[in-house]
Amino acid sequence: MDALSLLLDQFRHMGWADALVLSTISGNPVAAADDCILAKLRHLHAVQKIFLDVWLARSLDPRVADDLDLRALFAFARGVHQESMRFLEALTPAELERVVELPWSKTATAKLGFEVAAHTLAETLVQVPQHSAYHRGQVSARLRELGVDPPMTDFIAWVWRHKPDAAWSGDDRE
User: How far apart are CA 140 and CA 22, in angstroms?
Assistant: First the structure.
């Protein structure tokens, strides 16, 4: 499997996992009303959008998801995933090597106390699903605290299911 195919699978899995978690939360009134869960989800999906905007050389809005309720966040996440997939599907392997400047790199340098290394498009494409999985894990832990059984969203579980597409709210597949 080549790098671009693996990245496409990572993003397809991310969409599936995000939709599954959002559906689980939407189906549970206690989870749907939890401010901690909503804050994590807003952050997770805002970061996905911000990276997409970096890749597409658009202006960034770090507060893009701050005021979204769960229903609006579902639609927002779906749109970001669809646009991300269009972006990835149009890439060539050679484009993966281009250096991408993240606007917050200088802030990271100051905060971390060392000069951050340059990074490629491929490396930033790896970062987004990794970051999303980290926060989905936090959401799953919170769901357990609330007595809700979180869905299995591991990559291998997605593979075992024959790599299904995301079932976003309102999809005919639901």
Answer: 11
Cα dihedral sign, 125-129-131-132: positive
Asked if residue 86 lies in contact with residue 62, where contact means CB atoms within 8 angstroms, the answer is no
In 3D, which of 131, 149, 152 has the Cα closest to residue 45? 131
The strand pairing partners of 160, in sequence order, are: none
The torsion angles phi and psi of 99, rounded to 5 degrees, stand at -75, 135
What is the Cβ-side half-sphere exposure of residue 114, based on CA atoms within 13 angstroms? 3
- 161: helix, strand or coil: coil
Are 95 and 121 in contact, with CB atoms under 8 Å apart? yes
C-alpha dist (Å) from residue 59 to 49, 87, 102? 11, 17, 12
Instruction: Determine the Cα–Cα distance for residues 155 and 12; give it in Å rounded to an integer.
Output: 10
**Whole-number CA gyration radius for the chain:** 16
Strands (E), the chain: 99-100, 119-120
pLDDT tens for the chain, 174 residues: list them: 899 999 999 999 999 999 999 999 999 999 999 999 999 999 999 999 999 999 999 999 999 999 999 999 999 999 999 999 999 999 999 999 999 999 999 899 999 999 999 999 999 999 999 999 999 999 999 999 999 999 999 999 999 999 999 999 644 333
